[in-house]
Amino acid sequence: MGDRAFLARRIGECVATSRRVGTAVQSLAATLARIQDNVGTVVEGKPEVIRLALTALLAEGHLLIEDVPGVGKTLLAKAIGRSIACSVRRVQFTPDLLPSDITGVTVFNQEHGDFEFKPGAVFANIVLGDEINRAGPKTQSALLEAMEEHTVTVDGTTYELGVPFMVIATQNPIELEGTYPLPEAQRDRFMVRLSIGYPSVEAELEVLEVHGGGDRVGTLEPVTDAQEVAAMIETVKTIHAADALKRYVVDIVRTTREHPAVELGASPRASLALLRASRAKAAGEGRDYVLPDDLKILAPALLSHRLILTPEAQMSERTPADVLSEILDTLPVPGKR
Asked: Which fold has domain 240-337?
């Protein structure tokens, strides 16, 4: 009898927990939709780009935008920051930019007779690194600790960064004169790489209508705040991913390392990023579980920039996206025969 009572209590606790998670996920999906709609009022015609950027935000990832000038890279970062009432700091990367400009510096305060820390640009919720490949490797590497551990260490003292924290870096893939390619270690720390692309005719006409009269971002009203976004991030961590799906993640990533056209495949960090992003995507769609399609849809944006193809593959004009498409078409999907 005691065993039955214990089992009934445990079942009741599991049901209650499931209901709480379900309610939190539905609330998250509704809030995410409001954020996307709000950002969409100033970044016209790019709902998929906005959704992917917000997915990275909820998965505690970072965003690398590679595109030509003038398509709205900075606009996207500012609009997200204002929509969630978070601080946004912009860093214009140049060859003379110093690491201390990003992380901060310890200075002597003559008035108090001791040293004090002056925070750098990285101490914000959203850090926009504009043209990140124009700074030298030493300056670029100043972001490595912040992006991976959400901390900054200066003169032996470690400082915690706020939540949410996201680096949105941009680079121009066309103009390469005077640039320094991102090292692989840093590219691997970006969860998502995307291109915004030129707008459609209708969207470009709307851009003229919306932005022709002034700065629309400056008047954008927030629809949530940092505290709620932090709670959303915690909710994403509760999304269920079956063991078979975790194995599918590992199979995808390991296959990139073994593919004959790939010289350097995706790292274990990529596996974690793909799982976290798939949980964020599922939550954003109101589900408390991950589907195989979540992984297949996200894989190109999360893995392409991490792959280096062999010289032979590059000479045959194959791209990382081509290789990933081949891998995803070949690997068996969990639950399907």
From this structure: Helicase, Ruva Protein; domain 3 (1.10.8)
